[in-house]
């Protein structure tokens, strides 16, 4: 990749330095930039501009045609056009994973109701991350954890039984912290018709019912999981008991007010955590630690756990639990995917899951296509709240960023079909030296950044970088297309430009596939 070659060039001159290469902002001249001069100047108490001049004079490479210095000491590199064209003829692929086995757990909705739009965002995020990891050379598996044990399942069963009483005309009272949504009424009716009334059977059947809904919904949303792991499976294999025994033997537990605590503060948590309540129930933490041990013992070398914002308080505790088992926290990356707020007519739509006023993913997909939904979910960093603009999502025009990208691809396919109708065949042996227009060079250079963008997205665990790259690529292509005719009288120039736009289309399609979106050839 171009960035790596510039980094290697500077590393030869300054082998002891950490080399950071960035892209140049649009208002500055150049393609890549480094702050190396400022880093060196800080150590030597010399002017960064003076150091920048020294570095610039030492660079002699066919990669670089010019260096430009900007205060306070940035060095910008202008790529040699001949180098760009030679580089453009080969397709490089990011391969930073080197086969490392990665477990990516995401969504993992409690089987107590339908998948809502916050879970939908996590689904799009996790699935895109798995696609990116595998593209970049990792061996990544998607995993769904089914919380089929614990108090929330008891509350679900009791809430359904109360709805059954309601349907029978009896007095009913749903627990205050139970599930009040009317979505349980059809299920209660189904159980009555099947004469299912025993608590444990209601519990089991309800979990299976919602789990099947989750599986079907996620498959429709183009999200595939290799592993579906039940909490009951982890418990039955003895992992919770094993972890509990280890913690006790290491003196990491203590009793207080009838509850059993884990000394997570010994591993930098903000406070010690309850793992068994006064009435003998496990809190989420102990089974979750056991579950992560189960992942490790299935030979995964790195774990990524994607959680919703309501689990923010668990992050430090989970890291502490693994440290308590003598694992480095570096084996685990916890990512919090923030809330989604729906906007319609400029106003936010109020949602509450327990009250049953949430918007399901199915509701959303009944209003907008999957491509739009996934792309919009991935247009912000996972650490940022997402305002999902329904009006823009429904707008079937180039104002909608999804269609803007798709129109670019469809337009290229239309040009290629037109060329084929004219009898012009697509070949790879073209003369790229014919491409000297400013817009052509900008397009080539931007396409060469694609694999670098994938590398950045993987290293930062941020698929949104791909959405913005694709929007940028579509914008650059549209600008090129407005300025230059692809199929013209000069057949050699036509073939060179066809090669350019074909690579553009391939990049657009690959990027959209990594996001789980399609690229229609006609629109």
Short description:
The protein is an alpha/beta fold and 523 residues long. It is built from 20 helices and 15 strands. A hairpin with a 3-residue loop joins strand 3 and strand 4 (74-79).
3D architecture notes:
The protein is an alpha/beta fold. Among the domains are: 2-79, Arginyl tRNA synthetase N-terminal domain (Gyrase A, domain 2); 401-514, Isoleucyl-tRNA Synthetase, Domain 1 (Orthogonal Bundle), CATH 1.10.730. Helix content is 48%, strand content 13%. The strands form 4 sheets. Strands 7-6-5-11-12 form a 5-stranded parallel β-sheet. The protein has a 4-stranded antiparallel β-sheet with strand order 1-2-4-3. A 3-stranded antiparallel β-sheet has the order 8-9-10, with no helix packed on it. The relative contact order is 0.10. Residues 353-357 have low confidence and may be disordered.
Average the pLDDT over all residues and give the rounded result. Answer: 94
Tell me roughly what share of residues is in helical segments: 40-55%
Reported by name, the CATH topology of the domain at 401-514 is: Isoleucyl-tRNA Synthetase, Domain 1
Uncertain parts: 353-357
The dominant shape is globular
Give a count of the beta strands, DSSP E runs of length 2 or more: 15
Rounded to an integer in angstroms, the radius of gyration calculated over CA atoms is 28 Å
Tally of alpha and pi helices: 20
Arrangement of strands in the largest sheet: 7-6-5-11-12
What is the CATH architecture annotation of the domain at 401-514? Orthogonal Bundle
Question: How far from one another are the termini?
Answer: 33 Å
CATH superfamily of the domain at 401-514: Isoleucyl-tRNA Synthetase, Domain 1
Return the structural class: alpha/beta
Strand percentage, roughly?
5-15%
CATH top-level class of the domain at 401-514: Mainly Alpha
Q: In this structure, how is the largest beta sheet organized?
A: 5 strands, parallel
